[in-house]
Amino acid sequence: MMMMSETEKSLVSAIQHRLGELSSRYPSSIMLAVDDEGRAHLQAALEDRQGDVLLTDNGGGELSDIHWQTVLHHIGYVAVIVWMSDPRDLALVRKACREVEGNCR
Fold first, then answer.
1. What are the residues facing 84 on neighbouring strands?
2. What pLDDT digit, counting tens, does each position of 29-63 carry?
3. Predicted confidence band at 101 (pLDDT cuts at 50, 70, 90)?
4. Which residues contact residue 53 at a Cβ distance below 8 angstroms, ignoring those fewer than 6 apart?
5. Which of 105, 83, 98 is CA-nearest to residue 38?
6. Are strands 28-34 and 53-57 parallel, antiparallel or unpaired?
7. In the chain, beta strands by DSSP E
8. In Å, how far from its chain's centre is CA 7?
């Protein structure tokens, strides 16, 4: 097993703390890989949401436009976590996935 430096341990701790805070505020979440089309479709599907929704990067960090465009340009999609305060909104996300890709867990 590889030993982590103090800096790495601190980063892991910060990410775990951030994900824990998000999980307590948003009890439902799903990780997706989306491009611009998928993002637009997801946003349209969530117009009828019941609660609050937040999109973050896969570490729970801010998903800024610069982040979005940079990652999308390099790999063709962005890994996001869709956080939802109302578990009923998960059905909207899954429906949007099926409409775009034909499948979504």
1. 28, 53
2. 999 999 998 899 999 999 999 999 999 999 999 99
3. confident
4. 46, 82, 83, 84, 85, 89
5. 98
6. unpaired
7. 28-34, 53-57, 78-84
8. 25
The rounded distance, in Å, linking the Cα atoms of 85 and 90 is 10
Question: Residue 6: which residues within 8 A CB-CB, separation 6 or more?
Answer: none
- Locus of tokens 């949007």: 96
Q: Quick one: pLDDT band at residue 1, thresholds 50, 70, 90?
A: low
SS3 34: strand
Query: What band does 2 get if pLDDT is binned at 50, 70 and 90?
Result: confident
First to last CA, the chain: 32
Three-state DSSP state, 84: strand
Counts of helices then strands in the chain (DSSP H, E):
4, 3
- 9 CB contacts (<8 Å, ≥6 apart)? none
